[in-house]
Write a structure and sequence with these properties.
Cytochrome Bc1 Complex, Chain D, domain 2, 3-stranded mixed β-sheet, two-stranded antiparallel sheet, about 10% strand
Length: about 300
Amino acid sequence: MTRALALCAAAALAAAAYLAPAAGQMKAPAPAQAKAPAPAQAKAPAPAQAKAPGQGKAPAAERDATTADFEKFREVLEADNPAELFEAKGAELWKTPRGPKNASLERCDLGLGPGVVKGAYVQLPRYFADAGKVMDAERRIVHCMVTLQGFDAAELAKQPFSTDTRTPDPVAITTFVAGQSRDMKIAPPQKLPQEREAYAVGREIFFYRAGAYDFSCASCHGEDGKRIRTQQLPNFTRADEAVRSYQGWPGYRMTGGVMHTLQWRLWDCFRQQRFPEPGYVSDSLTALLTYLAVNSSGQVYKGPGIKR
């Protein structure tokens, strides 16, 4: 009975988050300020305040037990994952003629040919000659919405992320596309110089320290044994843990009952570091996604998942 109630509650939250009418507009992310990259080997900043020995770090056994308990809970919910609701809506949006040009996205080329969705997500980001840019999945979908359907890019960027009353169309479509690569190996290409450059820039961003807290992505995800409260933080510089940056996204967020993509996840990390938030589907986010995806190469992607 407890499992059934949990699944019903999760599904109800997901449905409400998607189907409820919009209630105002979300503030668009401010464009990031260009800064010279710091050396890739920069170390994580020291804590702002001294702590007593042992403070702020739970015993390893306790951390492992907490993580194991949550993973069991996640497995129960993923048996009837609320993300499937967003996948279904994304599939409908992909096929339906919409926008000023009254066109569907069935001619959108995600890198494997016009309209080919199967296996595309795990082979992104990649370079697209028609745009002259390296693009991740959501960025490419937005590009197709603009070029094929006639939507306005600036309007799409005004409310790019999900709230408790609204799920933007690119989020649902990205979830659908991601679901079509379920149980496939992650394999973003690095053959072209533009793709290799995106990886190098993403690596610089990952280690670049700045902002009010002198943080970088590596401050939380560049060493072993770090955590926030009871949540263990994976080390994305290690091949065996890098996949956790990719796995389960797009993800249904249990705290809030909303669907989010990796564009939101990275944008929110910059916000929490007190960095200037990068622009939606910007070069900087795509570069960082390239770094994380390439580091995850060879791992099996399990599809849209559930997050805390």
